[in-house]
Amino acid sequence: MTPPTRRETETGTAAQLPEMVEVSTPEGQRLVAQLTDEAERHSRKLLQVRDLSTYFFTPGGVVHAVDEVSFDLDYGETLGLVGESGCGKSVTALSIARLVAQPPGRIVDGEVIFDGIDLLELSGEEMRLLRGRKIGFIFQDPMTSLNPTLRVGHQISESARTHLGLSRQAAAARAVDLLGMVGIPRPRERLGDYPHQFSGGMRQRVMIAIALACQPMLLIADEPTTALDVTVQAQIMELLRSLTQEFRTAVILITHDLGLAAGMCQRVSVMYAGRIVETGLVDDIFERPRMPYTRALLDSRPRLDVEPGGRLRTIEGFPPDLVDPEPVCRFAARCPHRRDVCDQREPLMTPRPSHGQGHAARCWGTEPGGWIP
Ligand SMILES: Nc1ncnc2c1ncn2[C@@H]1O[C@H](COP(=O)(O)OP(=O)(O)O)[C@@H](O)[C@H]1O
Ligand code: SF4
Ligand SMILES: [Mg+2]
Question: Is 29's C-beta closer than 6 angstroms to any atom of ligand 1?
């Protein structure tokens, strides 16, 4: 019996296979393994972060930078991780990539399952290979991630050579393609330039080229446009959106700007003081925010309809100290809706079934029967 062609098996499941192929042949066994893998992939998430906790052990005490953070990401999905400076966004990203400086930092608990693999169980070398090949990164300041002493062509092709095993010539050709794709004019001529010969926006484009050189399954972009002026910021975001859509790359966009996340992401998770405090589809977060911190973030966004000269509302007060935090609501000191219970027990992330898919928030006042409408 000849093995079915790819087209014949596309709609079948692994369970149906034995009737269709002779599984005792090596070819049949390969097909079963491949289809089982594909079926598993369809039923699982690209990324599952479960109760991730990363602390910094400092002379002043243990800083709970990331505290029992959980979230999922589907294949090809875009998620915004949003919150004020210091709330734990970057440390979450660094923990997923196993790049937290140890000491003083340490992932003390949790799981990070990426494409079925527990990243926290991998060796350093396995993780290094996976980082460039399957997870790409873009950081706020490209000068900290680009090597100032190496030509940009070399930095792009290096990634393709290491991870995809391309020849020197093929990798150089790929570098030209990628530079062109990210909108660098005359890419072939620019291959020999050093990072300082590019403007800030162009350097960020080079970073995007490097991050996407191996067509990773996941791109983590940490404040990718914060250092750029508004016009360039819009161009870079558009570029990121179109390229990740084209490559079907899943994205975690880290930003303090809820508006920026809304423009690019399907879902948003709001972080506050090391915790995720609300998560949901972009429309739910914007139209039906629950947690008072999310509402405050929305109110503090720059708006076009605010009269010129009108004052922007900011969130009063400061986030709490993350050294050994009390088991109470971490937003209580700044919350206009605070009640006694908020200072006695910490609320859990609770699903909001009446709202959209996956909408959940952490707030006593918005629990069913709570006092916040
Ligand atoms: N090396 C470090 N030592 C001690 N504390 C740190 C270190 N790096 C980060 N932190 C603390 O972890 C918390 C989260 O930081 P970070 O993830 O960088 O915030 P964000 O990216 O949201 O601005 C902050 O309170 C910060 O002070
Ligand atoms: S739990 Fe209480 S203090 Fe915390 S956000 Fe909700 S209402 Fe405010
Ligand atoms: Mg950060």
Answer: no
